[in-house]
Amino acid sequence: MSRRADPRRVAYATLRAVDESEAYANLLLPVEIDRAGLDTQDAALATELTYGTLRRQGTYDAIIALAAGRDIQAIDPDVRDALRLGVHQLLSTRIASHAAVHETVALVREVAGQSATGFANAVLRRISRDTPGEWMGRIEQAARSDDERIGLVHSHPVWILRAFRRALAAEGRADEIDDLLRADNASPRVSLAVLPGLATRPADLAPTQYSPVGAQLPGGDPERIVTASGGRIRVQDEGSQLVALALPAATPIRPGERWLDLCAGPGGKTALLAAEALRHGAALEANEISHTRAGLVRRALAGVPAEVPVSEEDGRDRAHATPGGYDRILVDAPCTGLGALRRRPEARWRKSPNDVTELVDLQRDLVAAALTALRPGGVLAYVTCSPHLAETTGVVADVLRTAGDDVEELDARAVLQSVSRTPLDLPAPSSGSGRAQLWPHRHGTDAMFISLLRRRPSTDEKR
Q: Which of 119, 190, 379, 403 has the highest local Cβ count within 10 Å?
């Protein structure tokens, strides 16, 4: 008789691949679930175990280190990931303690051999004897600074929480940091984008709070709805919907406009822009340097009955090749992804401050190149899924300083408010600019940033 597929082993296989091979849980986990043939209930458990463990990894590592009496990095990686999974079951789920310990020790036996089971059993039983609150108290006491304490409690690296606090402080909201970190550790709701003019929101789905094309999935697998719609209803964060819709809403659209999505992968915003372009008589083009991601863009566009060419070039070269050629350009730039830690929790353990420095140079170059591809009067939307000030206001300030009087910043907050179904809480940044920042704790979206830049119209255009 074959062994029943086990959601714990599916979760463990995903955790190991994330840790060892830098795999992405959101891409790998569905494959592992399908390979194991899990039913709906077990698939939901595997998902919770995987994402819950990744989100709380920093907290669990501190607890394991205290219980084991050794540094977390000194523990064999195979055993370490199994312990993280076991501790999540003990401290953050309703799974019975004896079952969590027994199954985790059995898993350690499979992946690391009998010799490792004694150690794993001792650590897990030590942890199971005390409450989550007692363990949290211990790691708080062991912290060397207040920021380290906050990072351990909320499972965020100190450099990230400090970056978040600075971004909130720029809006006069630094006291929201705990709310933001808590939101990062919550399971995000699933939002759908209903492509305007091409599909209607299913009657059994409620609209999202802000996006005029959004629908709220109460639970379950969205694939049935997406497939039935022919790709005209898509899974997409509400924040991503809003920033994509802001570009066509920034200024009145003239017939025959040319639009460009310069960094289009994986294609969610591209599809929404394509539907908007179709409605308004504009022509959209897309570019994505990665061949694999360019394929995802083409797949995302399959539900839009319009010809949208997708090039595969460096965005800087693509923009410089068409000076003054476009009326609207979206630069959804490569970024750290710190605004999507709910959905991609492993990014918090994978990224470092050095990544910010490298990405800022690229972001600045992409925006500067894209501005040369705008016609006078054209609008560029600079978007990141990161609230880090270096990637957001820093890039925009540098670009505006270099561009001089040729470029002006529009009021992105006002544009987002005009797009949104209900008012958005968008405090003005201390700089007084019109840039807008969405937040998980405040809006229930990813932390999307947007700035709208316009090349000043020529004298002829002003007439």
A: 379
Tell me phi and psi for residue 85, to 5 degrees: -65, -40
* Structure letter (DSSP) for residue 427: P
Q: How far apart are CA 440 and CA 184, in angstroms?
A: 7
pTM assigned to the model: 0.94
Residue 277 CA, chain-centre distance (Å), reads 25
Q: Taking a C-beta distance cutoff of 8 angstroms, is the pair 303, 226 a contact?
A: no
CA distances for 156 relative to 4, 64, 165, 172, 275, angstroms: 35, 16, 12, 22, 38
What is the SS3 string spanning 165-185?
A: HHHHHCCCCHHHHHHHHHHHC
Q: Which of 357, 358, 355, 379 is nearest to 367 (CA)?
A: 379
Judge whether 359 and 388 are in contact, CB under 8 Å.
no
| Residue 385 a catalytic site member | yes
Single out the catalytic residue among 385, 410, 415, 416: 385
Q: Tell me the C-alpha distance between 56 and 84, whole Å.
A: 9
Per-residue pLDDT of the chain (463 residues; tens, 9 = 90+): 345 579 999 999 999 999 999 999 999 999 999 999 999 899 999 999 999 999 999 999 999 999 999 999 999 999 999 999 999 999 999 999 999 999 999 999 999 999 999 999 999 999 999 999 999 999 999 999 999 999 999 999 999 999 999 999 999 999 999 999 999 999 999 999 999 999 999 999 999 999 999 999 987 788 889 999 999 999 999 999 999 999 999 999 999 999 999 999 999 999 999 999 999 999 999 999 999 999 999 999 999 999 999 999 999 999 999 999 999 999 999 999 999 999 999 999 999 999 999 999 999 999 999 999 999 999 999 999 999 999 999 999 999 999 999 999 999 999 999 999 999 999 987 777 899 999 999 999 999 999 999 999 876 555 4
CA atoms of 5 and 36, how far apart (whole Å): 6
Dihedrals phi, psi of 235, to nearest 5 degrees: -75, 125
- Spatial separation of the C-alpha atoms in residues 77 and 86, rounded to whole Å: 14
